[in-house]
Amino acid sequence: MTLAQNVVPGAILSLNGEVVRVESAMKVSALKGRPLVKVKLRRLSNDEVFEKNFKLDQVLDEVSLSERELEFLYPEKDYYLFLDTWTLDQVSVSSSCLGEKVFYLKEGTQVKAICYGELIHAIELPQFLEIMVVKTESSEMEGVKKAVLETGARLIVPMFVEAGDVLKVDTQVNEYIQRV
Q1: Residue 52 predicted with pLDDT over 80
Q2: Domain 2-62 adopts which CATH fold?
């Protein structure tokens, strides 16, 4: 438990049963009425950012998260199966929790799961992955073309990249780094 006036960026809170991370917090003094804290929050379940105002003395539920190392196994309908590398348990993660990150999952990919209790709220991919190109397509832009990777991800690559090449890809910004 913490007071709204003491909230700092990076803090993890539980609001109405939902786990959120504080992106920014600013004290605002109104001409009339009481001052408040304007907080920008990010839902850990889907990365959506929203703002909320709190009274200075409002008590907020601060929580701590744990991290688990998982290894991707395979997709199954609307879920993706992972192996917990510590306990060797199979863990299923919904596609809504993964979002666009599914386009970088291939068998054996090591990821970090952010958990609150036993519930997984987010998956963090390694920043760089090596993934093979399965197809290239022409592009309207000069000097580059589009590539489809073995995981289904699509990105812009230089003209010399061909199907069968293995690329180092930055998963955070969806960009080609280099040919491996």
Answers
A1: yes
A2: SH3 type barrels. (2.30.30)
